[in-house]
Amino acid sequence: MLVAGKHLRTIGLGDDGWSVEIIDQTKLPFAFETVRLRTLEDAVRAIAAMQVRGAPLIGATAAYGVCLALRADASGDALDRACETLMATRPTAVNLGWALDEMAAAVRNLPQGARADAAYARAAAIADEDVAICRAIGGNGLSLIRAVAEEKGDNGPVNILTHCNAGWLATVDYGTALAPIYMAHDAGIPVHVWVDETRPRNQGARLTAWELAGHGVPHTVIVDSAGGHLMQRGKVDLCITGTDRTTGAGDVCNKIGTYLKALAAKDNGVPFYVALPGPTIDWTMSDGADIPIEERDPAEVSGIAGRAEDGSVARVDLMPDGSAAANYGFDITPARLITALITERGVCEASAVGLLSLYPERRG
Fold it and tell me: Mean of the per-residue pLDDT values for the chain?
């Protein structure tokens, strides 16, 4: 995607050919800064502190974290320690474990002297594969938006509600839920996006809105609880969200609040789509209730950061002293509430039958 007219990916090698450059998403939208990762510890910190976030980007960052670890020590013990340490950073996103398995398989049986180069090659391939997958998701989702636009005719733009950030900042490029929106906009289809603020970290207000503004896509930021009201008033034509993990039966784990949007959409007859890459499907699980739900620092709920009138960025407290806060990072949307899943291989119903129709190699 473009930032100030320059095409960027969210992650890539630095000009030295071995360090890893990322966009520090904790500084957006008030400042655009990049960070160099030079050690395994740097990669672990970037994932845990959400300098990078979004399941596909977490996976790509973990892959490069293995590269940095093996550059320092290519022993089998070092590989195991790197994978274990990275795996512990974010328990919910299945791409993390998938990427680490891919990296271990690519290097484990090689001589130590060949492991680092092989790791860098596999990490680069994982990043490139993610770009291709997201581009294909965009094309498959575009057909759904185009169909709504044709049905509406001249009766205004296609109004799409999304939750959290599943744009290019959550992937290596293009995004998942936002990829069809970008493609529709670029194809000349009038679209307007309702952007959930997505408390407590405000990934919608901070990141999705920043992305859409940079691409010129009309959008409006709303509080998380406004979606149902908009659906009741006929102001939402469809919802598209991303996912951090999808079971083999079609249950979806996504940012906290997604389930409530799906309930409101079901009650109001609004199509609810989830866009996901194949590596986000956890074929070992058939019940969303078994997905581990990350509980993050309560300070994310009790305070918020923003820009003051003088341009400085500061954190302020929101709650009285002595009040407890709980910070559940994700919730589960059952397959029965999902109209369809948008994948790189096509659109299918949210069910084992639907997913296996697109991924027949997973049968049995």
Answer: 95
Question: Tell me, what DSSP letter sits at residue 207?
Answer: I
Is residue 134 one of the residues assigned to a domain? no
Check if 244 is active-site: yes
pTM: 0.93
Q: Which two tokens stand for residue 82?
A: 């790197």
Active site residue: 196, 244, 282, 331, which one? Answer: 244
Q: What is the mean pLDDT of the segment spanning 294-314?
A: 93
User: Which residues constitute the domain of residue 57?
Assistant: 2-129
> If DSSP states are collapsed to H, E and C, what string results for 54-102?
CHHHHHHHHHHHHHHHHHHCCCHHHHHHHHHHHHCCCCCCHHHHHHHHH
For 77-95, how does the pLDDT look when each residue is reduced to its tens digit (9 = 90+)?
999 999 999 999 987 778 8
Peptide bond before residue 29 is cis, with ω within 30 degrees of 0: yes
For 215-232, write each residue's pLDDT tens digit.
999 999 999 999 999 999
pLDDT band at 6 (very low <50, low <70, confident <90, very high): confident
CATH at residue 169:
3.40.50.10470
Q: What is the CATH number of the domain that holds 46?
A: 1.20.120.420
